[in-house]
Write a structure and sequence with these properties.
single chain; about 100 residues; alpha+beta; Alpha-Beta Plaits; two-stranded antiparallel sheet; elongated; binds iron/sulfur cluster; Ferredoxin; 3Fe-4S
Length: about 100
């Protein structure tokens, strides 16, 4: 996991440094700076994600590939919604009455 901090939108709430002090430092006015190059160790992932999600102005973003980004599985006849369209031709199956 890798993160970046946009200091131009940081409003100095300090939430990030509270959750992940090893990754964020605060200057004299409370504005955050990233410690290091933004690479997050797996053991610190939860704390940094908490900082990311709790930042009130969304100044922290995750960059790079995410593990769950995979191609959608191909449609099969069973999962194809077009197979379950209710039409006049199959109304005996779905029970429409006039
Ligand atoms: S939580 Fe967000 S707004 Fe607050 S200091 Fe950190 S980056 Fe800035």
């Amino acid at each position: 996991m890798k993160i970046r901090l946009d200091r131009t939108i940081c409003d100095g709430f300090g939430v990030c440094a509270k959750h992940a002090p090893g990754y964020f430092s605060l200057d004299d006015w409370g504005y955050a700076a990233l410690i290091g190059d933004g690479t997050v160790a797996e053991a610190d992932r939860d704390a940094v994600m908490r900082a990311l999600l709790d930042c009130p102005v969304h100044a922290i973003t995750e960059i790079g590939d995410r593990k769950f980004r995979t191609a959608a599985p191909p449609l099969t006849d069973a999962s194809d919604p077009a197979e379950h369209l209710k039409t006049e031709e199959n109304e005996a199956e779905w029970g429409f009455t006039r």
